[in-house]
Write a structure and sequence with these properties.
Layout lengths: L4 E2 L17 E2 L4 E5 L2 E5 L10 H18 L3 H13 L5 E2 L3 E3 L2 E7 L7 E6 L6 E6 H4 L7 E7 L5 E7 L7 E6 L13 E6 L5 E7 L5 E8 L9 E4 L6 E6 L5 E7 L4 E7 L8 E4 L7 E6 L2 E6 L7 E6 L9 E4 L6 E7 L3 E8 L2 E8 L6 E2 L8 E4 L9 E7 L6 E6 L4 E7 L11 E9 L5 E9 L10 E5 L16 H4 L4 E5 L9 H5 L7 H16 L8 E6 L1 H12 L6 E5 L5 H5 L20 H8 L14 E7 L8 H13 L6 E6 L10 H19 L4
Length: 697
């Protein structure tokens, strides 16, 4: 059999020759006509996942990568040891209470995965091990836990696992009293919730395109094949999720697209009852629901893009009964709400930063939790209990490790429960984080978060790593990374581009970087790079960029638009074959994402997407040194997108800069699943980066 690739003659990769030649993917033309345009894809054949020739080609790319990166192996090992040396390998999460138990997870030195445990009553009680992920993962190349949901009486655990990386989860039920598994199991489950009777499970399953679309009800001990179908979402743009209110009184079935949603509810004590609708879906209207006493609380964007909060009757939740609690504000995005028995907590974003506002129902007035640094990230934590005056949140910044706080909502006092230890002598006072702004071509000020060591040079000579995302309205939060210290201590400045398309500045920020405004994401990023060079944070020959998934699309687009501006580019599981993927509605995510990228079956939208799709805009020009990474079992961005991208780039670009393609043959969208394996991957990436920037190891 003739393989559809060829290694350059005379190159023996196993011999470790210093300058190997890369694999060359064979061209097999596939031609189609879309809107009158002839489209030729020479690498379509790489989609055939089960074809041995595809596997052989990917193996040859990995062999080439291993050969090219072999001189960096001592540096990789040094970086890995540094990163590992900052981690407390045997550690414990902060316990949280649910019912009669305190729940937590812990890690043990040398083990890849967490162990999930609980204690009854107090932390002095004997430990009860619920799940040891290390035992479940034994013999598997990949392992991930999806849902972990304990029944109200604390006796039964519903949990789901994925052993491929393709995010296809199998649901199991474990009796925590005996350790025995129930006979039934459920395939392709994306979400699960218990009813209050401790014997009824509600679960959502995926269709062939991995869209959560059907809700079933199961009674323990019965045959899953006879489970009644309660709801099927027919609109392919919408997905389903089942959850339980914090009050435990209601089950909520959320049906949502990227721009619209509707919620149905069911009393948790009435699992055989009928689902009722809170409010019907409308174009460009999104909402979420929580419960307290006889009222539902809705976060909804019916009067403005940044959402407001209304309260309505459980018995009759129609719009006529809505009472506004918090109005929509142009400069503040309400990102979420947490409803407790005596308090309402709003998760807001203003000036790009997360804020928490607290209102005791007894006073009806809000106050804000003060957060100390100019650049930080804050998140709601495990707020499981309903009848409590304590709100738990997580706080971190580019220099401050993750910290868990309990906040007394009545006394307005917070208590630090734990700050993640960073071993190896880490001292946050050695580093500085700042918030900068760059002016986009249309005059918009785009935020930049930046961190560096105090002794870093500010004369244009410093190497700088600029990261970006900018899609789905997801904020690119300035979180802490102990791995990043290995770059900072070598003089590398690290910056985060908060470009449009993300959610840093509210819903409008997202709107200004999607659909026909998508190119703003790329021009914002370029403007930030130019600003950092102009202000002498770095120079073009010292500037590296990186992004993953939709952030990989960002990197792929900007290196086509301005390859002269960047010296190194790293993309992980990059969404680079935009048009071909969006033209195939059988692929996971495609139809739902018509509202983010556009529907290329519509000519105008096709032409706009064609203008920036990285794969379609590769040209005969010089490109930066590039590292492209993918996973063979990725379900979000199929491996063939980066594989095709690399093949076309190799055949087209005019430079001799390294183009390294690393394929994780046992990983998923996030790479490997084990924590030590993830450190190895980070060390590999950093070694490539430092080698190309000529930074001493």
């Amino acid at each position: 059999m003739t393989c559809w690739f060829a290694l350059a003659a005379g190159i023996n990769l196993l011999a470790g020759q210093a300058s190997p030649s890369p694999p060359t993917a064979r061209k097999v033309a596939k031609v189609e006509v879309v809107h009158g345009e002839k489209r030729q894809d020479d690498y379509f054949w790489l989609r055939r996942k089960d074809d041995p020739q595809v596997r052989a080609y990917l193996d040859s790319e990995n062999a080439y990568t291993d050969s090219l990166m072999k001189p960096t192996e001592p540096l990789q090992e040094k970086l890995y040891s540094e990163m590992l040396g900052r981690i407390k390998e045997t550690d414990l999460t902060v316990p949280y209470r649910k019912g009669a138990f305190l729940y937590y997870s812990r890690t043990e030195k040398g083990k890849q995965y967490p162990i999930h445990c609980r204690r009854e009553g107090t932390l002095d009680a004997p430990e009860e091990m619920m799940l040891d992920a290390n035992e479940l993962a034994r013999g598997e190349k990949f392992f991930a836990i999806g849902d972990l949901d304990v029944s109200d009486d604390g006796n039964l655990l519903a949990y789901s696992t994925d052993v491929t990386g393709f995010r296809e989860y199998t649901l199991f039920v474990k009796d925590l009293r005996t350790g025995a598994l129930a006979a039934e199991k459920f395939l392709k489950v994306s979400s699960v919730a218990w009813a209050a009777d401790n014997r009824t499970l509600f679960y959502v399953v995926d269709d062939a395109a991995k869209r959560p679309y059907r809700l079933y009800r199961h009674t323990l001990g019965s045959d899953p094949a006879s489970d009644p179908l309660l709801y099927e979402e027919k609109d392919e743009k919408f997905t389903l999720e089942i959850s339980r209110s914090r009050s435990r009184a209601y089950l909520f079935l959320d049906s949502s697209s990227h721009t619209s949603s509707e919620v149905r509810y069911l009393g948790a004590k009435d699992p055989a009852g009928e689902l009722r609708l809170v409010a019907p879906r409308e174009k460009d209207r999104e909402y979420e629901v929580d419960h307290r006493l006889g009222a539902f609380f809705l976060r909804i964007n019916d009067t403005g893009r940044n959402f407001r909060v209304v309260m309505t009757s459980v018995e009759d939740p129609r719009r006529e009964n809505w009472k506004e609690i918090v109005r929509e504000r142009d400069d503040v995005m309400i990102e979420g709400l947490e409803v407790f028995a005596g308090h309402l907590v709003l998760l807001e974003r203003q000036d790009g930063l997360r804020q928490f506002r607290v209102m005791p129902f007894s006073t009806g007035t809000f106050h804000r939790i003060d957060l100390p640094e100019p650049v930080y990230a804050a998140f709601s934590a495990e707020n499981v209990e309903f009848d409590t005056n304590v709100f738990r949140f997580r706080y971190q910044s580019l220099v401050t490790p993750e910290s868990v706080f309990d906040y007394d909502m009545d006394k307005r006092e917070r208590k630090l429960l734990k700050r993640t230890e960073v071993l190896g002598g880490y001292d946050p006072s050695r580093y500085i984080s700042e918030r900068l702004h760059a002016k986009a071509p249309d005059g918009t000020l785009v935020p930049i978060s930046i961190v560096y060591r105090k002794d870093a040079k500010h004369d244009g000579s410093s190497p700088l790593l600029l990261t970006g995302y900018g899609s789905y309205g997801v904020p690119n939060n300035p979180t802490f990374s102990s791995n990043r210290v290995s770059l900072l201590d070598r003089g590398v400045v690290v910056a985060i581009a908060h470009v449009r398309g993300g959610g840093e500045m509210g819903k409008k920020w997202h709107d200004q970087g999607r659909m026909f405004a998508k190119r703003n994401t790329f021009t914002d990023f370029i403007a930030i790079a130019e600003h950092l060079i102009r202000e002498k944070w770095t120079s073009a020959d010292r500037l590296a960029i990186e992004g993953g998934s939709a952030g990989g699309l960002l990197v792929g687009a900007v290196v086509n638009m301005r390859p002269d501006l960047f010296h190194v580019a790293i993309t992980r599981v990059p969404f680079v074959d935009v048009l071909n993927t969006m033209l195939d509605p059988t692929l996971p995510l495609t139809v739902g994402e018509f509202e983010e990228w556009g529907d290329p079956r519509i000519r105008e939208q096709y032409e706009y997407m064609r203008s920036y799709s990285p794969y379609d805009n590769i040209a005969a020009r010089d490109y930066p040194a590039m590292l492209v990474k993918t996973s063979f079992n990725d379900s979000q961005v199929m491996y063939w997108e980066p594989a095709k991208y690399v093949a076309r780039l190799r055949a087209t670009k005019t430079d001799s800069n390294p183009l390294v393609f690393k394929v994780n043959m046992a990983g998923g969208h996030g790479g490997s699943s084990g924590r030590y394996d993830k450190l190895r991957e980070a060390a590999f990436d950093y070694a490539f980066l430092l080698m190309q920037l000529k930074v001493a190891g």
